[in-house]
Write a structure and sequence with these properties.
Elements: E1 3-10, H1 14-21, H2 31-35, H3 38-47, E2 51-56, E3 71-74, E4 78-79, E5 94-95, H4 98-110, E6 116-118, H5 125-135, E7 144-150, H6 160-175, E8 182-188, H7 205-217, H8 219-223, H9 227-234, H10 244-249, E9 255-266, E10 269-278
């Protein structure tokens, strides 16, 4: 039986990837942030998940306004980095796990989640920056990856409660998989930030800290936050953090927070990370 061992929540700020790719991680601006990645990198080196499910939002590369699935899973053998206007990132291709991906799709669809099956896709910074945060610049990524893309761009986005329930269904699917592997799940995006409009640059650290606290102790309260509140409190792009509820829903009711930090600002974002493990016996 496969085992889901941990959840990671992390912002996926695109300029973090640019800092890695251009050798700027130790500059005055970036060093305070990258220094705080080291405990997370040590942790992942210890637990060594075989597969990572990365929940992220595509930024108009694999999908555009012509087709916007609410939830989609990539089934490819490998995934190339998207060209986001300045060429693909100089990173290894992301290796997929088609067998587990199709198992997840079958289980989730039979659990009444309408999952879009994607057999040809690239992955953008929403997925690749979290890998760089955890693994720096390896020759090959140390784990296989299943992309789970969520629409948090075009209204209506899925609700927090729906995302949490999807996470619970993912855990059920993993525990019914017949391979002896370990799985980590990432929730990515956020924290509070807005890129355009009259409120461009908005950051709400108190709300972000409340979100991180409740994610550990009372995730169902976070799941009840409505779209209007997300937008008002965290900005138009801050609603990305609803994807962390998929990660949290996949974990046990009680969790242990292994590591957490925030850093503000990272570009124009309140960067956040949390690492959660299932409580003993759950």
């Amino acid at each position: 039986m496969a085992k889901l061992i941990a959840g990671i929540g992390t912002s996926h700020v695109p300029s973090i990837g640019a800092a890695v790719d251009n050798g700027k991680t130790q500059t005055e601006y970036w060093k305070p942030l990258f220094d705080q990645f080291e405990p997370a990198r040590s942790w992942v080196e210890t637990v060594k998940p075989d597969v990572s499910i990365i929940v992220y939002n595509d930024h108009a590369h694999a999908f555009d306004l012509g087709s916007i699935p609410t939830f989609s899973i990539g089934t490819c053998e490998s995934f190339r980095s998207s060209d986001e206007g300045y060429g693909p990132r100089p990173i290894p291709d992301v290796q997929g796990d088609p067998r587990l991906a199709w198992h997840l799709i079958e289980s989730l669809v039979l659990d009444q989640f309408d999952i879009t099956m994607v057999n040809d896709m690239t992955v953008d910074h929403g997925l690749t920056v979290p890998l760089s945060i955890m693994y720096d610049q390896p020759t090959n990524w140390p784990c296989k990856v299943i992309p789970l893309a969520v629409n948090v761009v075009q209204y209506p986005q899925p609700t927090g409660r729906r995302c949490y329930a999807l996470g619970q269904a993912i855990r059920k699917a993993i525990e019914s998989y017949d391979q002896d592997i370990t799985v980590a799940i990432y929730g990515t995006g956020g924290l509070s930030h807005q890129l355009q409009g009259e409120r461009a640059g908005v950051i709400n650290e108190p709300f972000d800290n409340w979100f991180l606290d409740k994610l550990v102790t009372d995730p169902l309260t976070v799941a009840e936050v409505d779209h209007t509140t997300w937008l008002r409190e965290t900005g138009s792009e801050g609603i990305e953090a609803v994807m962390w509820l998929i990660m949290r829903g996949a974990l046990s009711e009680e969790v242990k927070e292994v590591y957490r930090f925030t850093h503000c600002p990272a570009s124009n974002t309140n960067y956040g990370m949390t690492i959660l493990e299932n409580a003993a016996g759950q």
